[in-house]
Amino acid sequence: MKKFSFLQLLLICLIAFTNLHCQKILPEKNLDLKDKIEYYRDSKPWTRWWWFASEIDRLSVQDNLVWLKKNGFGGVEIAWVYPLNRMQKDTVNYTPRQEWLSPEWTDIVAYAKKCADSLGLGCDFTFGTLWPFGDSQVPFEEATMKLTDKNWRQEITASWEYPKKGYVIDHLNRRVLYKYGSRIGNALKPALSTGQKSGFFCDSWEVETKYLSTNNFEIGFYNRYRYPIKQYLDSLYVDSEPYRSVRYDYMKIISEMVIEEFYKPYAEMCKKLGGFSRVQCSGAPCDILTAYGSVDVPESEALLFEPSFSNIVSSAASLSGKRVITSETFTCLYGWPRIKLGEEQTADLKLLADALFANGVNHIIWHGKPFNPVGVDTVKFYASVHAGSSGSLAEEISAFNKYLEKVSSEMKKGAVYSDVAVYLPTEDSWIAGELPKEKQFIWAWGEYEHRYTYFPEELRGYCPTWINGDFLEKAKFENGFLRVGDCAFRALYIDVKWIDMRNLEIILNLAKTGLPVYLKNIPEEPGFNKNEQGYKDLTDRLLKCPGVKRKWEETTNIKPIISGKNLPDFKCRQTEDGLVIFFANPKSKGLKFPLEYGQSYSTENVKAEINITTDKKRISYTLDFKPYQSILLKVSNTGKISESDIGFTPKIPQVIKREKPEKELWEVK
Hints:
The protein is an alpha/beta fold. It has 15 helices and 29 strands. It has 3 domains: 46-414, Glycosidases (TIM Barrel, Alpha-Beta Barrel); 420-555, no CATH class; 568-643, no CATH class.
């Protein structure tokens, strides 16, 4: 038996101790997730498939699906919308169609699903006609309401039933949702009986949010907060006290109702119908991370939301153990409503797709493909790029889709690598109320949407993840890591002004167990009825925890996984074999709505010197971005770096500078 001296034994112990504290211990799970991505059989991009209200025939259904199959799509999401004459505001001439939810409608939908199955395509369904949920069968008393006008109900007009009008369902009442869902589900039942499991799609929140209410809301509000909201309604959205505090209480209860009465029961209902939920929670007046974490497939959207917003969606997925993050992609690429329709450039689309990959998306949903009769490709959908045989993209769609599939597949492997959890400023956004006018759209007014919420720049290299009180409550700090869902963090970063008392207590409990916490500001308690002494006691106790620091550099000694100057956007995943890192082309960084026509144009390589810091070593590497190209690196457990072939070279785009009018159609001034 070999003998060791005291110094040798001490050295061995030190090495073991160092390895224990340097090596990132992954959550206990199998990182080979090939058998765990259960909702989509592969990573081929899908497309929204608009059915304009008309007589849909079987030959045209088959013709559309065959074209999509040949061009590299993996599936469709059928969206039932208005007849084409609605664009001329024609309310006199009725377009013949299969009546909404009729046996004839059910029959053609079931055929489309069967045809998709036979071609190896998936088929999801929008859970209603147009958006948000509603139709002519929703009674007045079950429609969405306003606190300020008991006789007001939100109408749905641009639907499959046009020119007939209907009501948007009350999204704060699960009984109403179940009643509506029963009708939709029964009409879809034959389509769900065979083949690949279908998703039920819920689009972004387009319910009126100001003064949103439901039956007996004022009574419930008073019972909870012990003061009447009615006396503050005249100035609920004013940026001053006491209205900011009242607004916080209002938003808090509305958030809980949106999640508990709509998103959670919707996801449960989808499962009971034999499918799954795919949902855009964007725009919803609620705790956005909790909402996205409650559905099966969280979906982002771009470009009406900046690509950076997808970090919120992908964070919710990681925190709740979801594998697939989809995105409605290419919406209003060059502006709203129909700028350069049918003239889109693939290089510009790639620029946006790469930005989404670098912000957490791993499955692309095109926006999209309009239904066209056999031999025709003249029907187009506004606010979209055109996926069809006659559009400017037609020649490149197949090759581009192969690129999207390849990158999506790589970005589903393993689990997201993230060292730092960042507290999402939900309370701040509710207190803030309205966005500055220059940041508003005619369809978006509130800070609560988090359209302009970004990670701190000093965390760029850490691959951070957003987190909130609900997920912190589920988390456990053990062996040096904060574990929740698929995530294992080394530190919590907090840079907000307001923290709810319940969440502050959760943070305190974690800090007491040793979690390193960076607390940039001394938080304040939001809400009308404050517990000033109780809140101060919690804050004082938090500040006394050894791991709580007021300077980030003192919080933890962890190094960013990627360091260097002018880092491109990137996303990192950890597998059993090492790391997979996608670096988006530098031109994809910081994209805003709308893109300029030809914004992707490039003629020169761009180089970036980076350092990759793993558990084993620090590796220097030069990223060499060719025009229109992004980079996918694989770093083995031994530190070996290889660059994957994800090359796709689009046609050189034409650059046309758009003259900006004094006021854009989407601006609020």
